[in-house]
């Protein structure tokens, strides 16, 4: 099992999760985070830290696409281990549907 970040993170990018991760397996894109599925040790401490409920176990239905999505971008984006402010519209975008199609950016974040 591993944990993944889904589209609920897009346009919010809360980073509460990165501070509790014992193996630093979060990677930062311009407007979301992902988890490297091969680095995640399945401890689960990140899941309750996410205000947007964007972190889910891969054992839930239809998670295969998110495992591959997280793998792809974790290999392209820099690691993030330090909590940062969420994106300016995070509260307004929290819970919005269709964020992958509307807002997703492949651009890397700053990391750090």
Automatic annotation (TrEMBL):
Question: Entry's Gene3D superfamilies?
Answer: 3.30.70.20
Origin: domain of life? Bacteria
Q: Where is this region: Disordered?
A: 85-112
Alphabetized, the UniProt keywords read: 3Fe-4S, 4Fe-4S, Electron transport, Iron, Iron-sulfur, Metal-binding, Repeat, Transport
Cofactor(s), by name: [3Fe-4S] cluster; [4Fe-4S] cluster
Note whether Mitochondrion occurs among the keywords. Answer: no
Q: Where is the 4Fe-4S ferredoxin-type domain?
A: 1-30, 31-60
Q: Where is the composition biased (Basic and acidic residues)?
A: 85-104
Q: Which GO terms describe its molecular function?
A: 3 iron, 4 sulfur cluster binding; 4 iron, 4 sulfur cluster binding; electron transfer activity; metal ion binding
Q: Does the keyword Iron apply?
A: yes
Q: What SUPFAM superfamilies does this protein's entry cite? A: 4Fe-4S ferredoxins
Q: Which PANTHER family match?
A: FERREDOXIN, OXIDOREDUCTASE
Instruction: Describe its function.
Output: Ferredoxins are iron-sulfur proteins that transfer electrons in a wide variety of metabolic reactions.
Q: What is this protein called?
A: Ferredoxin
């Amino acid at each position: 099992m591993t944990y993944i970040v889904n589209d609920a993170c897009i346009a919010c990018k809360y980073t509460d999760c990165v501070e509790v991760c014992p193996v630093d397996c979060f990677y930062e894109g311009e407007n979301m985070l992902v988890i490297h599925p091969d680095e995640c040790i399945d401890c689960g401490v990140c899941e309750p830290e996410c205000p947007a409920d964007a972190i889910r176990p891969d054992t839930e239905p239809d998670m295969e696409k998110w495992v591959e999505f997280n793998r792809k971008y974790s290999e392209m984006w820099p690691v993030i281990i330090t909590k940062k402010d969420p994106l300016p519209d995070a509260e307004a975008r929290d819970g919005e549907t269709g964020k992958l199609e509307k807002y997703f950016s492949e651009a890397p974040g700053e990391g750090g």
